[in-house]
Please model this.
Amino acid sequence: MSKKGRFIVFEGIDGSGKTTQARLLAEALEKKGRRVCLTAEPTDLPTGRALREALGGRVKKSECEMAVLFVEDRIAHNINAQNGIAALIEDGVDVICDRYYYSTLAYQGQSTDYGWVKEMNLRCPDIRKPDLCIYVDLLPEQSLERISKGRDSVEIYENIETLTRVREQFLSVIRDLGEEDNICIIDGYRSEKQISEDILAIVSSLV
Ligand code: ADP
Ligand code: TYD
Model:
């Protein structure tokens, strides 16, 4: 087993099960005796709080400003001295992150300029490339079934359109980065246990 920690990222549309699987992987690795840090973006750092204010509509930001804010938050997440991703990995801790630059490429890459967003994220010396990205794939109809119980059909219809577009954007990012990044698409339409066993097998094969 390597001395350095592994950096594993989970991506997927809302309701695909990425948060559940990130948690299950963290628990499984801890059971195996690994030290694990489960984290997420946007972060809880000041940069992440600024992003949430903008996401919640309390502060108005342009799409380009949002792209830059996500990058700023990601840099802070990487280099922060106490519990930054870089320091944890060096210390041998496995870092599991719920959303990362694939989300910025999928969302802001479409709403601004994809090439610019890709350069900012992939060429930034302070933004670490994950050892593995797990994309939990689920059709929007299925993810909505999981998250939208009790909502009316109009809202569900609107959400299906949005989630379908976001899923297409993610799949396009995966096609684009397939050569440079280690990305696994996992079928999310199975039991939590089946999916997590698959993911653990993939993670165990990482050097
Ligand atoms: P995400 O983080 O991608 O939005 P979550 O992990 O929060 O997704 O899961 C969304 C909802 O679906 C939660 O209520 C969760 O308990 C449920 N869920 C997660 N994985 C599965 C699964 N494999 N089968 C059925 N329901 C699931
Ligand atoms: P998240 O906290 O994962 O929201 P949720 O709990 O609803 O899944 O992410 C907040 C929102 O930020 C989500 O709609 C996706 C969006 N986002 C981007 O647009 N770009 C990014 O780079 C990231 C990390 C998230």
Summary: Residues 14, 41-42, 55, 70, 99, 103-104, 107-108 surround thymidine-5'-diphosphate (ligand 2) (CB under 6 Å). Residues 7-204 form a domain with the Rossmann fold fold (CATH 3.40.50.300). Residues 6 and 110 are 29 Å apart (CA to CA). The chain has one domain: 7-204.
